[in-house]
TrEMBL record:
Protein keywords: Cell membrane, Glycosyltransferase, Membrane, Transferase, Transmembrane, Transmembrane helix
Bias kind Low complexity: ranges: 141-152
Residue span(s) of domain ArnT-like N-terminal: 307-433
Membrane topology of the entry: Multi-pass membrane protein
Highest taxon of the lineage: Bacteria
Membrane spanning residue stretches: 226-245, 310-329, 336-352, 358-379, 388-404, 410-427, 439-459, 490-516, 548-566, 578-597, 604-625
Coiled coil: none
Claim: Magnesium is one of the keywords in the record: no
Record field: compositional bias (Basic residues): 109-120
Annotated protein name in UniProt: Phospholipid carrier-dependent glycosyltransferase
Biased composition annotated in UniProt, kind: Basic and acidic residues: 52-75
Pfam families for this protein: PMT
Region Disordered, residue ranges: 1-161
Amino acid sequence: MTGSSPLVPLDRVPWRVRTAGPDGRWDPPGTAALRTDGGLLTRPPAPARSAHRPDPRGRHGHRARESYRVEDSRTDGVPSSGGRHAAGDPGDGPPGERPPSDDDDRTPRRGRHRASGAHRRAGDAPPAAFAPPRHRRRRLPAGAAPPLGRLLVTAPGPQRHRPGGIAGIEWRVRDLLAVLGTFLLLHRPTAGLVRRFSREPGAPLTAVLYRDRPFGGALPGRRPSVVFLGASLVLVAAAVVLRGLHQHTAYELFMDEVQYADVANSFVEGNGPQLFDAPFFLHPPLAFLYFSRFIAAAQTSMTVEFVLSLRPAVLLFAAANTALVVACARRVTPRWAALVAGAFYALDPFVIRFDTRLMLEAPMLFGVLAGLLCLLLAAESPTGRRRWVLLVAGGLLWGLAITTKTNAGLITGLPLLIMMVCSWGLRRREAVTVFGCEIGFYLCYVTWTLATGRFLGWADQTLGGVVRAIGLVKETGFHSAKAPSFTSRIAANLTLTGTSYVLIGAASIFAAWFVLMSWRSLRVRGAPGERFADPRDLGGRERTPGEGALGLMACWIAGVLGAIGYTAGLGELEEQTFYLLAVPLSVVTGLLVTRVVRARRWVAVAASLAVVLVLAGSAAIWWSIRSQTDDTYSRFSAWLFATVDPKTTHIALGDHTAQFVMPGYGVFPLRDAQDPRASNSRYGVVSTQLSELGLADLTPETIAEFDRRYPVVFVAHGRTAGDLKVYDFSRPLDGSAPIGVGPQG
């Protein structure tokens, strides 16, 4: 390359020009560089290279220096040299002496690549106090070029082929992040937020959260205080009370609860995973095995009372998860911030809604949080047996999570893939070990299906679940054809989970900001106190305490946001999906409040007031829900068994939940006004709320027609089902022929 021109114009003011070398790194502060007024900032002379140490760069070092020169455009008539001087060009040096050029690799050089000085453009010899620069050894992949985002501020150089395999993927990911960071730098409102860390690759990761203050998280060797342990136990007890009070009447019976109770009952009977006498492999069996421990005797059929009696089984996970949220947040935040994170989890209305019912989300997140805690402990542990034991334990616990519910693979598998591709958070071999332990634990379950002859059933149902999860088939969730819109459900639930939406929104924005601020410092290796072997790793400086745990946390958050973002856009988006986001964001709130209190005083005061208001709002929502009853199916079941003879009566059902808790009754679908006569059903059961939401086959217009034609013999009102009505088709009000009169066959 014979010459180069800057991509951006340089103003002639005595400011310093910083340039990037071929490894994409900025010149370290305090070294000499070109000033835009044509002068030079001097530096001490460099020690000469030994004659016995040949230049390891050779021809490639010269190409790098030549390709990344940034030269000021000349207006005084002196031509700009491209680093090469024609033979016989005397320049301004002594006669008969060749001026120093870029091809002379025998000259000792120091530091990274710099912009060309005025003496090099004019052909003068360099000043005695200013030795030609010597390039630091670099360890880029063979044939790799610097990230694209850093080339945007340098002169274009030769484009080499990117390496293949994992190294090539890593550099492409870095390119995308660099371009994103460059655009944010050009955006004036956000430039001030990202300038410091995006322009200083060697900035400590702890500075993103703590600025210039010491790291406040728990480090190895520090014992927790008695006050902190006592406050954590108070939070755990409060979480159990908040979920256990009026547990049977505060939330309506959910259809999935009936199915999970029946699968647990099949384990008590010794039949393995079965749902209503059919093999069930849509979800792994660990949670059902746990629920079966709370069944004293096998049941012949499902009833509302039996299902509700199993709800206290999830209270144990509510207590354990609260303690784990506090423990995980404590690894990277001060004590008070970890307690704030635990309080958000304990009071979150959306989380309480699932922790109160017989659902799989709380047991699944137990394995996720326990595994994350082990990995956070390993990240700050020195390399040795203890570190590897913690890594293996974390992988096994994450395997426990996906063997409880396979959706846990979204928020555990993607973070590990990020670590394996980019070598962030953990070394590649460590991330591969954790991933192997996670998959190995799940393969034990697959091996059991092979040994018991259930593999074909597992493969069929699991493949169907995977196809739905990735969005190829959308039978359920907000993306399905009959489901209500996502925004309409958000608006309808504002009074029930409004503070949860505030928490999820604020924590998601901060989590994305935290990952963006941290991505150039995520590549960490070695134990605390060790120097990095790779020059790209934070400039060769020593790690600061807490960087390992913060890097791992940033990778986990990035994986969670990416997985939930894909599910919301292309996958099977259900209400339960946001539980996978709400609990991790409870940990993120500890990071959020830690960062906010280190901002300006008025920002810290406003944020503290917002935290108090959100917690108070969550407590008010909890009291509003617990002071009311939402148990329409429980009251309907009591009326049904006391009034209707199952041997002589058919019943038409306009919703899908009641069919699972009516053992012995002949039930038929109710989709329009003609179905009762076709099935000879005497009674019809409808839910006004489910019909309005499109979650039932019956339309609101058909319900209005039933109101005009038939009397209502039972009605129960609830928050979830609306009005659960029972019509008597044997006594029509319009004089039409009665339906379902007399004994039924």
